[in-house]
Design goal:
The complex is a heterodimer of chains A (383) and B (378).
Chain A lengths: L1 E9 L2 H13 L4 E5 L7 H5 L6 H27 L12 H27 L20 E6 L6 H10 L2 E10 L5 H28 L57 H10 L9 H19 L23 H5 L2 H10 L13 H19 L1 H9 L1
Antiparallel strand pairs in A: 1-3, 1-4, 2-3
Helix pairs in contact in A: 3-4, 7-10, 8-11, 10-11
Chain B lengths: L1 H24 L4 H28 L10 H6 L2 H15 L9 H5 L2 H6 L2 H32 L2 H29 L12 H27 L8 H32 L2 H11 L4 H18 L3 H4 L2 H23 L12 H24 L10 H6 L3
Helix pairs in contact in B: 1-15, 2-4, 2-7, 2-8, 2-9, 2-14, 2-15, 4-7, 7-8, 8-9, 9-10, 9-14, 10-12, 10-14, 12-14
Classes of the chains: A alpha+beta (383), B mainly alpha (378).
Amino acid sequence: MSRRVIVGAFDRETDVIAATQAARDGGYIVEDVYTPYAVHGLDRAMGLKPSWLTWVCFAFGAFGLVFAVWLQFWTSTVAWPINVGGRPWNSLPAFVPIAFELMVLSAGVGTVLVFFVRRRLRPGKRCVPFDVRTTNDRFILVLDGEGPSDLGDVRRLLESCHATAVDERQVAAETAHGGRARATGRLNLGLGVALAATLAGYWALGVDPLRPNFEFMPSNMVHAVSAQAFATSSVLPRGQTLQDPPPGSIARGLLPWPYAATPEDAARAGVELSNPFPPDDPAAVARGAAVYATFCQVCHGAGGLGDGPVTTRGVPPPVSLLADHTRQIKDGQLFHILTYGQKNMSSYTAQIPREDRWKVILHVRQLQQRAMSPTSQSQVQTR
Amino acid sequence: MAVVARVGGGVACVGALLLAIGGVTAPDRIGANVLLAGYALAGLGLAGAFFTALCYVADATWAVAFRRVPESLTRVLPAAAVLLGAVFLAYPALYPWTGAQGDALVGFKHFWLDRPFFLIRFVVYFAIWIGFATALVRHSRRQDVDGNLTWTRRNVRVSAAFLVVFAITVWLASLDWIMSLTPHWYSTMFGVYNFAGFFQSGVAAILILVIWLERAGPLRGVVRTEHLHDLGKLLFAFSTFWMYTWFSQYMLIWYTNLTEETVYFIARMQTAWRPLVFTILTLNWLVPFLVLMSRPAKRNRGILVKVAVAVLVGHWLDLFVMILPSISPEAPPFGLPEVGALAVAVGLAFLVFVRAFRQASPVPRKDVFLAESLHYHN
């Protein structure tokens, strides 16, 4: 069983595009066009629908993206969380490069594979060119020859588009796919069996993905030798395992306190330091009052006059906090006194944390201010 | 077209007026806003020159039909030079290294960020750019007269040399003018990130101008859907490239987490500037990526113009977020200087472009590749 086709040969790609368009406009059926290379614009002239491979590409790309993000999320947060520089397990910016690459890989490879399967291409496939003239820079247009009654019209049409040769040919009615289909069927069956065997093997092994893998080659990269911090070292400088901190480094959370317990440094602290808490911070002032009541009131008295309860039991009374001399001591110097102590007063570093020492100074200032205003002055004196 | 030039000139004058008024009400923001306008215009001109040179070097014949558009864009460069020169001369305080901080810089940075040397480099960059752009445009226009193929050959050589010099000078200029606003911060991605923004916004500008010139007349019957389709592909590709460079810079800094590098992103992403950064990523990448992915969208003039406008707005905001946080760290400022700078840039761009475009034939009519550009298929 064979049928007739009309084959036109052209020398230039613009001619074959024009001839294809003209043949379609003339009501002929374009069977196919064979060209030595991909010709832009020919698909439109042939009236081909846009390829659905773009959607395959999109789907594979979307799959690659989602799969990569899920894989990284699952491995780094669920299955095997590893602390990298203290970052959260689920750190999206770190996933982006791999998600990007896997998306591209999946879209590219997936599209090519689907194209191969759809076109029944495979390694070692022998392709017979429809017309050998395509291997010599010719463009071949194939029209259905069963429909048109007058072949002279077709010939004239193609020749008006600069066809170099027009002839008729008999081709097999059905393109012979039989043998190829059987070979592809066997290949598909083999691949299916291989896939089923892989899945069955995976299931049979019962691998728990949440556990570390089987260690088939024990080495000291797996079991690293850890050095003791205070042991001697044969490789590190000065034979120490734990190296000295670099000069000027500070322990975590420690603020430097470059003042000695001398009157000169107390004066210097007064000049250099200022209270980090503003006097109008109600929370700080309230805390200062509480600290004062706990640690200071026993000697200095509730009003700061130096008349605390211990002074009546033999402890020499301290100077009044309301005296002009005390008033003029700067915040920084008061902080120095609280830190190191002065005369009979001992250091309060151990009892009062740094921030509370600043806050209690706020309270002392408030006591001094209250004593300055006339109404409260009378109250203090009557007490 | 003459109307557009006049309107452009008017808008630029209004912008200058707004800047002048803003100079009284918010004097500290004038320098940075003029820098923004000048830098954006320089990028537009450079994108035009780069596009032209790239087409010559790659024998890209498809773009010949509308080559006068990128050619005319290069004429924006002198205007950019005037704006930037005014900033560098009148507002040295914009750059912290001109003051006390400059003494704290050591080694090569101290040598490089030196005011006279900085100004010399500024002159050298613009001399190189304007020189090459002028040569390209002059050769192209001379071909209109005699149709001689030697002009094309000569422009291929000029373009090859320009592309090499372009890569180095654009990188250095972005470091000089923008990165040195925060002199202690550095990023090796900064130059290519800036280049990506320039070319992306340049393609968007070319798209808008080509579609407008087709509708307005000079390019009617010359520009075809195929040209716009290819420009759409370029816009799609370079939007993604811009995102790639943006993210490369961000991820390296995020991963390394070094104090001297993170300052840049902390100032932009942990302050009131944060919403602006996400707006930029949306306009410059997400919108073109999703909208222009399909083929019909790239062949639709209405969609192309809308996406191109989104990209240009995003590019302006991108430069805004590069420059302005160094003077207004707490929140994005908005007022007369910001509106004025935008008006000056847009008005000047249109004024200069239209005047340059009208100087020559709208199509390189004797270019040997013109026929190919008029008849190719995608």
